[in-house]
Amino acid sequence: MSGPGKIQVITGEGKGKTTGALGLAWRAIGRGFTVFMVQFMKSPDSSGEHFAAKAFEGKMTIRPMGRKGFITRDGGKAADRDMAREALEEARSAMLSGTYDMIILDEVNYAIHFELIDLEDVLRLMDEKPENVELVLTGRYAHPKIVERADQVMEIKKIKHPFDEGVPAREGIEY
């Protein structure tokens, strides 16, 4: 990493938060860096990035640590909370291992919003970030304390989307 690593947040109602984080990852890989992405609330082999990452084996690791299906606003099940806590610990371990230059916590803001993990645990992880690691947090509903602690925050705003017209998620585009 050239210079000290920063903390970035990609949030908002629009599509493209994970895609934006993956763009950062591909750029980092192109410069010889290694990337670890833990995905809260996504199951293995459920998104196109899981298959694409295989081409970057040795440079990028993606660990989807959720179950199939969706968590609704009324919160998740105990198993969802267990998976989210395990994902956070896996991210912490990878971040402190010295193996990775970039750590991406994909959908971590959702996990906080749905109370699958504690805000304070994520803030503590942010404080523990080694100086040479870039940390990226994605997902809607970024908590104000997360935003305050970050070095860079980008909000993606939806103007128009095919979902609005009833078009279901398309393989290779939305997932």
Task: Note down, in words, how this protein is organized.
There is one protein chain. With 175 residues, the protein is of the alpha/beta class. It has a single domain, classed as P-loop containing nucleotide triphosphate hydrolases (Rossmann fold, 3-Layer(aba) Sandwich), CATH 3.40.50. The protein has 6 helices and 6 strands, in the order βαβαβαβααβαβ. Helix 2 links the parallel strand 2 and strand 3. The protein is globular. 37% of the residues are buried.
Topology overview:
Elements: E1 7-11, H1 17-30, E2 35-39, H2 48-52, E3 60-64, H3 78-96, E4 102-106, H4 108-113, H5 119-128, E5 134-138, H6 144-149, E6 152-155
Parallel strand pairs: 1-5, 1-6, 2-3, 2-4, 4-5
User: What is the gyration radius calculated from CA atoms?
Assistant: 15 Å
Structural domains: how many: 1
Biggest sheet: strands, sense, closure?
6 strands, parallel
Low-confidence segments, given as residue ranges, are: none
H/E element string? EHEHEHEHHEHE
- Beta-strand portion reads 15-25%
Kindly provide the name of the CATH class: Alpha Beta
Overall geometry comes to globular
Number of helices: 6
How helix-rich are the residues, as a percent range? 25-40%
Derived structural class: alpha/beta
CATH architecture level-2 label: 3-Layer(aba) Sandwich
* Strand arrangement in the largest pleated sheet: 3-2-4-5-1-6
CATH topology: Rossmann fold
Q: List how many beta strands DSSP finds.
A: 6
What do the pLDDT scores average to? 91
Assigned CATH superfamily = P-loop containing nucleotide triphosphate hydrolases
End-to-end C-alpha gap: 29 Å
